[in-house]
C-alpha cells in the first residue's frame, strides 16, 4: 500500500463527510472538505508520478474516488435543491452507462481498455468547477450568476459529448463479438 493509495483511500472516506455536511446545511464544512479532497487528489497524483509510486490499485482507486466524490456531491446538492435534478440525472446516468458498458464487455470476455478521453477530462474539470462554485456560493452567500449558468451549460454539453463518444467506442469494440451458434 503506497502513500498515494492511502491518500486516495482517505479521499474516499471524505465522501460521507461531505454528504453529511450538505444534508446538515453545513455548507462551509462541505466546501472545506471538498477543497481538502481536491488538494489530496493533486498530491496523490504528484507523488505517484514524481516518485514512481503509480500502481494498478491506484489506477483503479483514483477514478473511483473522484467519481464517488462528484456523484455524491451532485446527488446531495440535487436533493438539497441547489442544482437542477435533471443535471444530477445526466451526470449520474453518464457514469452508470460507462460502468455498465465496461461490465458488459467483461461479461462477454472482451474487456475494453479504459483510457480517459480528453473530453472526459474537460468534463471532470467542468463538473468540479460547477460543484465548487455551488458549494462556495452556499457556504459564503454570494450570487454565482451568470457563471453558474455557463458552467452548468459546460457540464451538460461535455457530459453528453463524453458519454456519446464512449458509447460509440464501446459499440465499435463490441461489434467484433461473434454471435454464438
Automatic annotation (TrEMBL):
It is a multi-pass membrane protein. It is an enzyme of class 2 (transferase). GO terms for molecular function: CDP-diacylglycerol-glycerol-3-phosphate 3-phosphatidyltransferase activity. It catalyses: a CDP-1,2-diacyl-sn-glycerol + sn-glycerol 3-phosphate = a 1,2-diacyl-sn-glycero-3-phospho-(1'-sn-glycero-3'-phosphate) + CMP + H(+). Pathway: Lipid metabolism; Phospholipid metabolism; phosphatidylglycerol biosynthesis; phosphatidylglycerol from CDP-diacylglycerol: step 1/2. Gene3D superfamilies: 1.20.120.1760. Its main location: membrane. It holds the Pfam family CDP-OH_P_transf. One of its GO terms (biological process) is glycerophospholipid biosynthetic process. Its EC number is 2.7.8.5. It is found in: Membrane. InterPro entries: CDP-alcohol_PTase-I (IPR050324), CDP-OH_P_trans (IPR000462), CDP-OH_PTrfase_TM_dom (IPR043130), Phosphatidylglycerol_P_synth (IPR004570). One of its GO terms (cellular component) is membrane. It comes from the Bacteria. The chain crosses the membrane at residues 86-109, 121-142, 148-168. Keywords: Lipid biosynthesis, Lipid metabolism, Membrane, Phospholipid biosynthesis, Phospholipid metabolism, Transferase, Transmembrane, Transmembrane helix. Belongs to the CDP-alcohol phosphatidyltransferase class-I family. This is CDP-diacylglycerol--glycerol-3-phosphate 3-phosphatidyltransferase. It comes from Rhodopseudomonas palustris.
